[in-house]
């Protein structure tokens, strides 16, 4: 499998009143083609900052970011990004929201139109949802549309930033199962930021554990469960063992 993303010795500091504040310190990792990798770390450890750097919205203080071997520091348009809040355009229908993203990414308008409609049906968003406006959909439905928009976008890497963080616990579990089966069919290259250890274990091939700020990768865990996975994994003793191990890594040092 070829390497899609290389984060190579990245550091990032912000200037503040009390001088420079280091947020990331020598962070290095990679994501291979078709891999699902999760980043998990304490609150404030710089996960969103890292996504901003990968997406080209900010520049690192040091280090390099490469996509398919080419340095993309400060360059936008290389990732399909899914934020915590769906951020759909309220004045466009669901289908038009997806079409717009594909259009911006350079896909022919006619192709974007048929892709959006076909995929909405395929992922169970039927019964006129394509022609509905986003504010008529539940939070979970909006996130399905947001995920689909990222999934269909042609960029080589999907970055999912706490995509289910704003959902209630039950909807979140349903969304995880939905995303799991959809991802296992499509195998796009994914980097996920999450606060949920269970979510990371259920979905990922590998988990990168970040330390508190200034953050570095303190552990890389290869998730040993075979695919296709089912949410019944939650009752597997090995699942709980790994959950405990990651929880201990994230515990604040007293
Ligand atoms: N533009 C900025 N200027 C100054 N400090 C910033 C800026 N952006 C982020 N920070 C600081 O960097 C640190 C890391 O923030 P970031 O949002 O990346 O963490 P996070 O791991 O995503 O947090 P959470 O898990 O709570 O969402 C925080 O202390 C934050 O205040």
From TrEMBL:
Among its keywords, does the record have Transport? yes
Show where the ABC transporter domain sits.
5-237
**Pfam families according to UniProt:** ABC_tran (PF00005)
Does this entry carry the keyword Coiled coil?
no
Gene Ontology molecular function: any one? ATP binding
Concerning InterPro entries, the annotation shows:
AAA+_ATPase, ABC_transporter-like_ATP-bd, ABC_transporter-like_CS, ABC_transporter_ATP-bind, P-loop_NTPase
Q: What is this protein called?
A: ABC transporter ATP-binding protein
Alphabetically ordered keywords of this record? ATP-binding, Nucleotide-binding, Transport
Name the residues that span the membrane: none
> What species is this protein from?
Paenibacillus solisilvae
């Amino acid at each position: 499998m070829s390497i899609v993303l290389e984060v190579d010795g990245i550091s990032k500091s912000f200037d503040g009143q009390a001088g420079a504040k280091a947020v990331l310190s020598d962070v290095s990792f990679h994501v291979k083609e078709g891999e699902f990798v999760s980043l998990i770390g304490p609150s404030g450890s710089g996960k969103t900052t890292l996504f901003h750097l990968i997406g080209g919205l900010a520049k690192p203080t040091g280090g390099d970011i490469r996509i398919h071997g080419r340095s993309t520091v400060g360059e936008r348009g290389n990732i399909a990004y899914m934020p915590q809040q769906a951020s759909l355009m309220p004045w466009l229908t669901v289908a038009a929201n997806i079409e717009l993203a594909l259009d911006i990414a350079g896909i022919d308008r006619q192709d974007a139109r048929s892709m959006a409609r076909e995929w909405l049906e395929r992922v169970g968003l039927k019964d006129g949802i394509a022609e509905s406006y986003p504010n008529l959909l539940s939070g979970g439905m909006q996130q399905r549309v947001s995920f689909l928009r990222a999934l269909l976008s042609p960029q080589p890497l999907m970055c999912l930033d706490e995509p289910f963080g704003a959902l209630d616990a039950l909807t979140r579990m349903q969304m995880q199962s939905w995303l799991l089966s959809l991802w296992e069919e499509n195998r796009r290259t994914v980097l996920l930021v999450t606060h949920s250890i269970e979510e990371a274990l259920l979905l990922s091939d590998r988990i990168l554990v970040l330390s508190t700020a200034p953050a570095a990768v303190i552990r890389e865990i290869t998730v040993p469960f075979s695919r296709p996975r089912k949410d019944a994994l939650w009752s597997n003793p090995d699942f709980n063992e790994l959950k405990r191990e990651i929880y201990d890594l994230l515990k604040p040092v007293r």
